[in-house]
Amino acid sequence: MAEKTRARTGHAKKAAPSRRPSRQGPEHAARAACQSLEKLIGHHTEGVSSVRRGEDGWHVVVDVLEVPRIPDTTSLLASYEVQLDGDGELLEYSRVRRYRRGAADE
């Protein structure tokens, strides 16, 4: 039995232009928060304590070395809460805590 093939009629689909997704993941948010904060406050970031997605973007807590001392356990660090929009652009930041490196949370 011979197979019948039918040519497609109509308009050819055009490939949609590739777009960057408007929402990035938590890794991107953490990296963007650290980079933006370092540029603004001029202190080295030590790490990220938390990342959570909010309705309007990302809320990231970044730990920063504010006053390096010798020995290192006496250095002063601070935690900054950084708010980013869905694309990772900084909206606002504020210092929420300052502490000695060797100090434990109560």
Automatic annotation (TrEMBL):
Basic residues bias locations: 7-22
Top-level lineage group: Bacteria
UniProt-annotated stretches for the region Disordered: 1-31
Name this protein carries in UniProt: Gas vesicle protein
